[in-house]
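Chapter summary example: a protein plus adenosine-5'-diphosphate.
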Amino acid sequence: MAEELQNYRDTRQEFFANISHELRTPITYLEGYSKVIKDRLYSTEEERDQYLDVLHQEAKRLQHLVDDLFELSKMEEGKVSLSLEWIDLAEVIDNAVQKVQLKASDKGLILRASLNRSTAWVHGDGLRMEQVILNLLENSVRYTEQGEISITLGQTESYVFVAVKDTGIGISEDELPYVFERFYRVEKSRSRQHGGTGLGLSIAKKLIELQGGEIFVSSKLGEGTTFEIRFKLEEQGGSI
Ligand code: ADP
């Protein structure tokens, strides 16, 4: 296993093989279940509704995948246009938290925000920043069955940070270095069942780097995961 991970190489060929695989799976479901419905191979209305649910989920997955791929290809070509301005991360986090609140409470999870509202503003793209933070929060909700998710905004002498911490399933030490790789999914079937594409974190990392920041992860299997984004103060034009 460790050796297999060591040998993990993100080649172009592998990239396309991955895309084909990711597209083929939902398409197979769409084909199969629509045929079942078309041929009326169900015995109750409920059964039919279940199949329709699968169709709906798989169509959504395809949409999500195509959106992510489009985003990734724009970034690879350097075609992402960021609109940079001085942004207040507390405000960005407030918006993201508001959006994910319902998903968290639906799962019975506590979502806690602990924000130092006097941290330095950072030079970034507010919408992209929100997209990344939302992605981290959504992942936390997705991979946590009980407990809490907390988001912290703070500042040290040298950087401003946003940390998203959960009490979820965690990621093993072996797999941790690969979570930012395109299409990398820990425990593939479980993530797929959660609707993931394995692209979210690679996009998040690129977006953060384009804004001059860095992203880190630490995790303990069975205990939880923390993602942290940092923006160095000196690289932020000496803002207060
Ligand atoms: P996905 O769309 O599959 O969630 P990501 O790129 O967002 O893809 O994440 C890559 C993998 O990292 C996921 O498949 C999941 O296994 C793991 N992961 C991401 N966030 C968490 C988290 N908060 N807790 C546990 N595992 C996580």
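Key point: The first strand starts at residue 85 and ends at 87.
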